[in-house]
Write a structure and sequence with these properties.
single chain; 767 residues; alpha+beta; seven-stranded antiparallel β-sheet
């Protein structure tokens, strides 16, 4: 564990009391605001017109950035976001791009108001640049924000911001990912807010210092100017809006937008029963050479119209798998926005008033300086969001209407692969660096009423896209052998998780080996977990085919479609490693699908047959996890009934029963808890399928418990946990001890906490 450095607490940002922050501003920085009476006096039509105009401003800023940027991370993947904030930094309107960044933007503005108002000052025409994840604005150093104050008649009126991931900002590792890093000094240098534009002019000295650190300085310089241009668009549109409607009216709309978002979310929470729900997840390996599991745990408590997310018990910071407070907050927003606020305008400044965060400093998702945090957003922050989403889904699954927003975990993690080398295709060789962006097409989690979207995208980037293969081959010296959806990668369930996919590339247009950096999770322990007995989606897998036969196969007129055709020397990649890819060799990445929902043995056999026809599920997978026998392209109904009966009997024979189940009881008037459990009017928790009483709120639930090899979860578990970690990892399944319907299924370490402890009913415990 890294030791804190004295003075580093100065570069740390936390949410503030808006009134206190406003009072603390120096007299040289007057701020524009309005009274509550002015807010209340808004007429509905004006409010809606201006609200939608503000929304359109962030969209226009996004289009401006994409048109000016030359980075596929921006132009294809949409890994960026924007915000319009009020005079003290509260986010009024955010973009529909990388929603994790929403949790960090306001923190950078708060810090700037506290620490830059006097020296060097905050003036009209200024813009600040920041990539310090302890300050905020982004979640790791590659997230770079450019933000500006907007003045009206000499008063600070608002802020606009543009933040995007940069391909490389220096450090030991390619793409600023150093798999062996133990502290931030092996990574890109964090830069607290610095004035990059002064009085409307780019500060060339600061800009030169900024781009000098990068392996791709021209690309970073172009993105810097693109973000400045996007902010210019935001400022011009805000001034036009003020000119049309008046400053007080526009500001009143901004304040009311946040108040309305807060009020609507509080109203939704108030209509739900109070309770607590917990979830625990793991990152397998923390750095190159590590073989441990590292835990994040959260308890979500809903009391009245407020939420508390308590991360007490999370493991200490380690290796590269840490994020700062901004990352933890961004992970919470990743889950909250689509699950609880999908029908509420995303005025994040109001929504964030509805929850508190409790966390110990120096932990994986609240790391202190100088922890290594390059993996921050796509490791601990992402897992934080997945765990919060799991808790919120348990909370909402009790309500049929709100349950429409319940979703098993989407692809679980971002599988990072960075390649860099020498492009020899032109007249003069040139260096290149690229992040493989194909995992943008992750599988979505299944829902109570529908399958997950196959290769539907990322939960964190609603408007994300997968790059064009031809454009990738045009920009970089690689040839794509295949990019395809992979069967059996979606988590099995009554509703199936969306499938993931794979890509295979080989060097083409370079005679030298290219560097290859891998940084991922979810190989030993599933991060794309299912709900209500649904199984996790596939484990990730990275493989390098050494001594490949690609040239020979091409000479024979054959296009390889499997790694076995290419080489008999297949080298699995560890979670974190620095390697290489030589000409003739092939790198293949299989990224994750979504988790399943409900017991796979309850899935409609016709749906399984359709999956087989559409190559979403193999015939072997249909039989192994769904108990569906396919014959002649259709369902063999008799064989399927027999196979499902056999599998339920196998569950019974291999499981121990913890507790004493009760009799079958009348379920009339019972209240739904999830897909399998109900709570009766008499206070019993019972199986919805057979009516067996499993306990009362004061009891431990009586369930069948099974633990076995992780491969028992299905053919989607392609990695052997022992290749990555020393901990014992198992397939754990809880079942009703009467009808043997699966209540929970997961690939977890043997010391994973009891998952049924808060399943739908906060006081229930099991096993």
């Amino acid at each position: 564990m890294t030791m804190p450095i004295p003075g580093s607490e100065l570069y740390s940002s936390r949410p503030v009391d808006p009134a206190e922050l406003a009072r603390s501003l120096p007299s040289s920085l007057p701020a524009h605001t309005v009274t509550q009476e002015q807010i209340d006096a808004l007429d509905p039509l004006t409010y809606e017109v201006i609200r939608h105009r503000l929304w359109s401003v962030t969209d226009e800023m996004g289009e401006a950035l994409k048109r000016m940027s030359g980075s596929p991370i921006v132009t294809d993947a949409n890994d960026f976001d924007f915000a319009i904030s009020d005079e003290i930094g509260q986010e009024v309107q955010v973009g529909l791009y990388n929603t994790m960044l929403v949790g960090a933007v306001d923190l950078a503005i708060y810090w700037t108001l506290r620490n830059r108002a006097d020296n060097p000052g905050i003036e009209p025409g200024d813009m600040f640049l920041c990539n310090d994840p302890w300050v905020g604005g982004g979640l790791h150093q590659n997230d770079v924000i450019v933000f500006q104050p907007v003045f009206h008649e000499g008063k600070l009126f608002a802020w606009t911001s543009a933040v995007a991931h940069q391909p490389d900002l220096g450090g030991v590792g390619l793409g600023s990912f150093s798999p062996a890093a133990q502290d931030v000094f092996s990574e890109s240098l964090p830069t607290p807010p610095v004035k990059i534009v002064r009085d409307g002019r780019l500060q060339r000295d600061v800009a030169d210092v900024w781009v000098r650190r990068s392996r791709v300085p021209m690309l970073v310089g172009l993105d810097l100017r693109a973000k400045i241009g996007a902010n210019n668009v935001g400022r011009e549109r805000l001034h036009a809006l003020i000119a049309q409607y008046g400053a007080d009216t526009v500001k009143a709309v901004m304040k009311r937008m946040m108040a309305d978002a807060e009020s609507r979310l509080r109203g939704k929470l108030a209509g739900l029963p109070d309770g607590s729900w917990s979830a625990t997840g793991y990152q397998d390996q923390s750095h190159e050479g590590d073989r441990n599991l590292h835990k994040i745990t959260v308890t979500t408590t809903k009391a009245g119209d407020h939420l508390t997310f308590d991360f007490t018990g999370t493991d200490p910071q380690a290796g590269v798998i840490n994020c700062t407070y901004a990352g933890m907050r961004g992970g919470v927003m990743l889950a909250l926005l689509p699950i609880l606020a999908g029908d509420i305008h995303w005025s994040a400044g109001g929504l964030m008033r509805c929850f508190d965060l409790v966390s110990e400093e120096g932990t994986i998702n609240n790391a202190t300086f100088p922890a290594a945090v390059s993996r921050g957003p796509i490791g601990p922050a992402w897992l934080t969001g997945s765990l919060v989403a799991e808790c919120l889904s348990q909370m909402l699954d009790r309500d049929l209407e709100l349950g429409k927003n319940v979703q098993a975990t989407c692809c679980g993690t971002w599988d990072t692969a960075v390649i860099a080398g020498l492009d020899e295709r032109g007249e003069r060789p040139a260096p290149f660096l690229s992040i493989i962006m194909e995992p943008m097409a992750g599988g979505y989690g299944a829902r109570p009423h529908a399958d997950g979207m196959d290769t539907g995208g990322l939960f964190a980037i609603p408007m994300g896209r997968i790059p064009d293969v031809e454009m990738t081959e045009f920009l970089y010296p690689v040839l794509t052998l295949w990019r395809r959806e992979e069967p059996d990668t979606g988590g099995p369930g009554r509703h199936r998780g969306g499938v993931g996919a794979s890509v295979a590339i080989t060097p083409h247009g370079t005679s030298l080996p290219m560097g290859l950096v891998l940084a991922s999770a979810g190989k030993a322990v599933a991060q794309n977990v299912g709900l209500s007995g649904g199984h996790p989606g596939n484990s990730g897998l990275d493989v390098v085919a050494r001594d490949g036969a690609v040239a020979r196969l091409f000479a024979e007129g054959r296009m390889p479609v499997t790694l076995d055709e290419i080489s008999d020397r297949l080298e699995p990649g560890q979670n974190y490693t620095s390697s290489y890819l030589a000409p003739g060799e092939v790198f293949a990445m299989t990224w994750q699908g979504g988790g399943g929902y409900g017991d796979p043995l309850t899935r409609d056999p016709a749906a399984v047959a359709r999956d087989v026809r559409e190559q979403r599920v193999t015939p072997e997978g249909a039989r192994e996890v769904y108990g569906v026998v396919i014959a002649g392209g259709g369902v063999d109904e008799a064989a399927t009934t027999a196979e499902r009966d056999r599998q339920r009997a196998a569950r019974r024979d291999r499981s121990r029963v913890d507790g004493v189940p009760g009799d079958r009881i009348d379920l009339t008037g019972a209240r739904r808890l999830d897909d399998n459990l109900v709570e009766t009017t008499g206070g019993h928790v019972a199986c919805r399928h057979c009516g067996t009483s499993l306990g009362t709120p004061e009891d431990r639930l009586a369930v069948g418990v099974y633990e076995g090899p992780s491969r028992g979860a299905g053919p989607q578990i392609v990695a052997d946990p022992a290749d990555y970690v020393d901990a014992d990892v198992v397939f754990r399944q809880y079942s009703c001890p009467s009808c043997w319907t699966a209540l929970y299924a997961g690939v977890v370490p043997t010391d994973h906490p009891n998952t049924l402890a808060t399943l739908g009913r906060p006081t229930a415990t099991a096993g």
